[in-house]
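[09:14] KT: can someone run the structure on this one? pasting the chain below
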Amino acid sequence: MDFNKIFQHNEAWIARRLSVDKEYFNHLSEGQNPQVLYIGCSDSRVTTEELLGAEPGEVFVHRNIANMVISIDLNVMSVITYAVEHLQVNQIIVCGHYDCGGVKSAMEAKDLGLLNPWLRNIRDVYRIHGDELNTIEDSHKRYNRLVELNVQEQCINLIKVAVVQKAYKERGLKVHGWVFDVHTGRIIDLKINFVKILREIMEIYDLGDNFN
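[09:31] RB: done, structure tokens below
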């Protein structure tokens, strides 16, 4: 990317949009009505709208290192609350990707300073699934399996959130766990069983009369 040409690219993009629809920006300025909340990784290789084939206004997006859903992260919790309660999204996607730098860093025995508290959450995923991961001899396969398990655990963290439980009960909101394969460009659906997970965690994570 030529940084000095960003504004030229912007003008060219505007021209392309207007050539198709002269009212495009008038419609865009009227507000948003996304049906999907996408929680993904900040990795520069994973571009949300292009990956999903979505247009501006169709997907509400939150990205952070390794697509984490951490209960004390006010950023992600605010995004989830706003998307679910105010935008009324009906689908939430947690999407990781193979060869994730955040997951790889968490697997290494290194002091990474300010990153340590964040990466500890991924290391906890490894601890929870250590019995499975330690049987995988190939380090790259073990690494990518941790990517999948991390997505799974972040979906579980998402299902623990009260507004998510409430939206499931009231309008059937769904949670999906995906992995983007950077080698093929394909999206892999991990087929997260929302209802099964919810039933399993209800003894501890029933946050009010949200699920019967």
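[09:33] KT: thanks! The first strand starts at residue 36 and ends at 41.
[09:34] RB: yep, looked fine to me
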